Structure prediction request, 144 residues.
Amino acid sequence: MRSSVVAVSILRCPTSRGCHGWRPVDSLNELAAFNYYIRVLGSDDRNIGEASILAWAETRSGIAVVDDNAAVTAARARGVTVRRSLGLLCHGLNRATLTMEDARALVDDLRVSGGARFPCDGAGFERWAESNGLLSRDGPALKP
Prediction:
């Protein structure tokens, strides 16, 4: 059963984005996976973060939370379970564990503080989610 959700980088993440320096790689398998993702995605700071998350998830049968299309494609090709941030927010809305107001605020916070490159801002999140069929109109969070 997969229960781990990865939300931090393994090797290095720029401190300006809220991460705190270096974390050692735990195995040669993780290093090999990290090397694969760096070759596929590139080695700038953002891609190092994505690669380290994917390597961690791959070697521990975890769930990686990433939004970059190339990272999602590379991970899925290697059998890694991937979730996207906005999809997780929609899941929370549909299960009534998150309000739309909180979801909008999270989208804006992730864009401003985390540097996320989403297809919408907080104000446009509900419209984006509806247009992509990600919100259940019958769900408890969206009933009038």
Summary: Residues 1-21 have pLDDT under 50 and may be disordered. Residues 45-60 form the longest helix (16 residues).
